[in-house]
Design a protein that fits this description.
The complex is a heterodimer of chains A (427) and B (490). By secondary structure, chain A is mostly helical. Chain A has 13 helices and six strands. In chain A, strands 3-2-1-6 form a four-stranded mixed beta sheet, with helices on both faces. In chain B, helix 2 packs across helix 6. Classes of the chains: A mainly alpha (427), B mainly alpha (490).
Chain lengths: 427, 490
């Protein structure tokens, strides 16, 4: 044990003294702060948009006495608190359903967000994953080669320590130097968000954050073991670094860029016929209401796209970085499942509403798309209330992602262990 | 040192050949270079796919928008740029809709359509492939040229040539370009063939000029990257250090610099917070609402009167409403223009901030290059701006026609209220007139379209950008030659 801690201490000293680590850590903090700021701005805007939408829907559902209009009630989806870290599909998916009972289609509308101009459209989760893994690779890739070139490796291997312990020491030291700044960023960000009242640090949020940090640690660990594998496979430290960079670019940049196209190739989506422009226009002119045909097309399209998105999530197993993103979104509650929760309550409320409407308003005459309120006042006792659904953390989805990441780690670490055992330490 | 030009030329050519061969034998150049070429060609199909998707969406939205347009407002949908594959320019983040009202264009500030659920990831297009992938490939193969030659002893041989050190350095530089430029041309030609053979875009004769400008500017940009790599290899002695420095430089120039542009712009010229705008709108609403609320008090006694028949009620309501409309028309106009003023002031601060942020991010060579290509392609922000200008022009023509038509058709309009008027600003309690169901000849309204970015302006901007990049290139080479003159071999 003391031997292991000796190796770790020695490595830590080396890492902490290197300029690379220092500059990279500062860069990560700066870029993280920028993306955290953008994320916070978007979060505030969305919270305000949700509050505005919800209020408008409450007013709408009560104004039947004032206006000759159809009754409507709404189901609103609150912004998930942890979208501060990973926005995921939260913007793309509909955020409220306006149910119009027997006279009109249920229209699904998305939150009207003011796009925030940003030159770095990356979530905090993406920043930490990309740059954390890059740093882990930079730190580990030249660990063995450099020591061999300097001649210190022979000294290290002459200690009465097994090679696997040396490798483990390298691994733990690298994990420490990368994880500490990165996890500090997350903890600080969540604490500040908690203090400023943006999120309530309750057990759900803390569990989600813990799941996220686990996934992040595993991603960085994957990068570290890959770096060590490369280092013990390749003799020159420069070559090792180059290969490390290439691997990083392949899994972190190229795969995420290609994966959507790959998914579209496997499951193509039919061309649009008539998407509901009313999504925006309803908010502009309230009377611009989607037709049944438009809403049906929109829903069909949404269903097809959800099938695509599910395949995309399954394909994420091919790249640790994508896998990490998928589990981060699950633990933030901003993946597809949060929408499924929403649509279940939408269907329940719609069924209640239609039942109530059919029973209660049988005697009212109708006119076009609304009731003719000549026999005022309309009695709306028993009208189902507007609902608000809260995003649920998908711990099981996140846990699956974490398990697959663990598998990646185990395989690469095993390979690294075997190669390092046969490493020739001569300069 | 020789003064004989022939010897100097022969020496120069020898250096160039040496360098070119060294690069060709370098596995890093092979891996990264081939990877970049493959991704470049793949990016063309990605861009074309994006374009055909946007066009489908545009067509569908236009059909839907025509149904919603009329004498109240006209919904204008932005036509996606044909050159999305060359430079996407953040087009997907820009709203694709504007609403023309009589006397005013409003931006609802969000796109319409069904959102794609797959993460769009990076904007994989030509300018991205060149700015980030090719630059990385070239940096990866040039960042340690001198340092490595020093390490394996070949630099000693090179410096023994009877040549000035500047010439040797220029020879190394020319050797790099002699290998990379043909590689680039292969990639560009491949991309062009994919684009032309797909049959998804119309290719006009003037587009050749745009393509040529793209090729020229890209070569200039990448030669700047090669010069930067050479400078790094002179400044640092260990190849491993060179690699780390080059990577950090790439990350700082490509990611960190553009990342801090927005916060910096916000610090210098902050856009008005949406909350402040909402508060201003709310106070205007309250101010005018007080005056207008009287109307609903006039309506309620009639609605709830027990001794009137429905027919009588309706007649009385209609009369009261018409009176109210007349009384309130002036008030509504003042109110609406007040709301528009608040909104326009807000939008202008937002516009100012994002403009400043764009300008600051030009400090990064990658962003500078991408923005120049964006100018050439006429897509993204450039497309959006010309769409906005066209929308303002459209509104100028639409307003008088619309007002005349409205005056003529007033008797047919539906008078509604007092109610929550359904406008962008929720005019509480304002009586309104709707023309949604009034029949009129749609052909009387002006048509909208034809706002492609003119070629001349694009090429002028591209030329300026090329001059700037060339100047920077010269500066880096000058610094490199100064350092190289004092380079210590041992």
């Amino acid at each position: 044990m003391t031997r292991l801690s000796g190796v770790i201490a020695k490595r830590l000293q080396l890492h902490l003294r290197s300029v690379t680590w220092f500059v990279s850590a500062i860069l990560i903090v700066i870029v993280f702060a920028t993306s955290a700021r953008r994320s916070t701005t978007l979060f505030d805007l969305d919270a305000a948009a949700f509050a505005g939408d919800h209020l408008a829907h409450v007013v709408d559902s009560q104004r039947v006495f004032q206006v000759y209009s159809a009754l409507s009630i709404a189901v609103d989806r609150t912004p998930a608190p942890l979208r501060l870290l990973a926005r995921g599909l939260d913007d793309a998916l509909p955020s409220s359903a306006i149910i119009r009972g027997n006279f009109g289609p249920t229209s699904l509308t998305s939150r009207q967000a003011t796009p925030v101009s940003s030159s770095l459209p990356l979530d905090p989760v993406q920043v930490l994953g990309l740059f954390g893994s890059l740093l882990a690779l930079l730190v580990t890739c030249d660990a063995v080669g450099k020591e061999r070139e300097q001649g210190t490796l022979q000294l290290v291997l002459s200690y009465p320590v097994r090679r696997s312990v040396v490798l483990l020491g390298e691994y733990i030291a690298a994990m420490l130097v990368v994880l500490v700044p990165v996890v500090l960023c997350v903890v600080l960000f969540l604490t500040i968000s908690g203090i400023t009242g943006r999120i309530a640090l309750d057990s759900g949020v803390l569990l989600g954050a813990a799941m996220f940090i686990t996934a992040l640690a595993l991603l960085i660990s994957t990068a570290a073991v890959t770096g060590l594998l490369i280092a013990s496979r390749v003799r020159s430290s420069t070559t090792a670094l180059t290969i490390g960079l290439f691997v990083w670019a392949l899994f972190g940049v190229v795969y995420p860029a290609v994966a959507p196209a790959l998914t579209r190739l496997i499951i193509p989506v039919d061309s649009l016929t008539s998407p509901a422009t009313s999504d925006t226009l309803t908010k502009y002119w309230r009377n611009a209401r989607a037709t049944t045909a438009e809403m049906r097309d929109t829903e069909q399209l949404l269903q097809q796209r959800m099938v695509q998105a599910r395949l995309f999530n399954r394909l994420a197993c091919l790249s640790p970085y994508s896998l990490y993103l998928a589990s981060a979104e699950s633990s933030a509650g901003t993946n597809l499942s949060s929408y499924e929760t929403f649509i279940v309550s939408e269907e329940r409320v719609a069924a209640q509403f239609k039942k109530w409407e059919t029973e209660k308003l049988r005697e009212y005459p109708t006119r076009g798309f609304s009731y003719d309120m000549t026999d005022l006042p309309l009695d709306i006792t028993g009208l189902p209330a507007n609902e608000v659904t809260v995003a649920r953390l998908q711990v099981s989805d996140a846990a699956t992602g974490v398990l697959v990441l663990l598998l990646w780690n185990a395989v690469i670490f095993g390979a690294g262990h075997i190669t390092f055992a046969n490493y020739d330490p001569r300069p | 040192m020789t003064r004989d030009p022939d010897v100097a030329l022969a020496g120069f050519i020898a250096v160039v050949r040496r360098m070119a061969l060294q690069l060709l034998r370098d596995y890093r150049f092979a891996i990264f270079g081939c990877g970049a070429v493959a991704l470049f060609i793949a990016s063309t199909s990605a861009g074309l796919g994006e374009y055909s998707r946007s066009m489908q969406e545009y067509t569908a939205l236009r059909t839907s928008a025509l149904r919603q347009s009329g004498l109240e407002s006209v919904v204008l949908i932005r036509i996606p740029s044909r050159f999305l594959f060359m430079s996407e320019g953040g087009e997907r983040f820009l709203s694709n809709v504007l609403i023309a009202l009589p006397g005013y264009v409003d931006s609802p500030h969000s796109s319409i359509g069904v959102a794609d659920l797959l993460p769009r990831g990076l904007p994989l297009d030509w300018s991205f492939a060149v700015a980030y992938l090719f630059s990385l490939a070239i940096l990866m193969s040039t960042h340690d040229v001198i340092a490595r030659q020093r390490q394996d002893g070949t630099l000693r041989v090179l410096l023994s040539y009877p040549l000035k050190r500047v010439i040797i350095l220029l020879g190394e530089y020319a050797g790099t370009l002699a290998v990379t430029v043909p590689l680039l041309l292969v990639a560009f030609l491949g991309g062009l063939i994919v684009a032309l053979s797909s049959g998804q875009i119309e290719w006009h004769s003037e587009d050749w000029a745009r393509f040529a400008a793209f090729v020229f500017l890209s070569c200039v940009f990448l030669s700047l990257v090669a010069a930067a790599g050479l400078l790094i290899s002179i400044l640092f002695r260990e190849p491993a250090t060179c690699l780390v420095v080059a990577t950090l430089c790439w990350v700082v120039a490509g990611i960190a610099l553009p990342a801090i542009a927005q916060p910096l712009a916000h610090f210098i010229s902050p856009a008005q917070a949406p909350r402040e705008q909402a508060l201003e709108l709310e106070s205007a609403r309250l101010k005018f609402g007080q005056t207008i609320r009287v109307s609903s008090e006039m309506m309620n006694p009639i609605i709830t009167a027990p001794d009137l028949t429905e027919e009588q009620k309706n007649q009385m309501l209609h009369k009261v409403q018409l009176d109210l409309v007349r009384q309130h028309e002036e008030l509504i106009r003042t109110y609406t223009s007040e709301l528009m003023r608040i909104r326009a002031a807000y939008l202008s601060t937002v516009e100012k901030e994002s403009e400043l942020s764009r300008e600051i991010s030009l400090g990064s060579p990658m962003s500078f290059y991408v923005s120049a290509i964006n100018d050439i392609a006429g897509s993204g922000v450039v497309n959006q701006q010309s769409f906005q200008r066209a929308a303002v022009e459209f509104t100028r023509r639409y307003t008088p026609i619309c007002r005349t038509l409205r005056d003529q058709l007033r008797p047919l309009a539906t008078v509604s209220g007092p109610s929550v008027q359904d406008g962008p600003y929720r005019l509480q309690g304002v009586t309104s007139i709707t023309y949604a169901e009034v029949p009129y000849d749609h052909r009387l309204l002006p048509s909208f379209g034809g706002y492609e970015v003119p070629l001349g302006a694009s090429l002028r901007r591209a030329l300026i950008a090329a001059m700037v990049l060339l100047g920077l290139d010269g500066l880096i080479l000058w610094i490199a030659s100064r350092r190289f003159n004092r380079y210590v071999l041992a």
